[in-house]
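Reviewers of the previous submission asked for a worked example of the structure-prediction workflow described in the proposal, so we include one complete record here. The input consisted solely of the amino acid sequence. No template or homolog information was supplied to the procedure at any stage.
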Amino acid sequence: MEEKKSDNKNKIPEKMARLAWPKAKYGLLVAIVLFLIVNLILYKSQIFSFFK
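From that input alone, the workflow returned the following structure tokens.
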């Protein structure tokens, strides 16, 4: 029973195994880019007011 628990610890759940998971570094890069784009859209007037 102990062996079974240790084997299942690092296994991917069955429904998630069929999905293509990107590498973590790409997910972080996408998150940073989305964060910058959303902030640029929301705070465009405040950002451009610094350059005037």
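Residues 24-42 form the longest helix (19 residues). We consider this example representative of the routine output the project will generate in years two and three.
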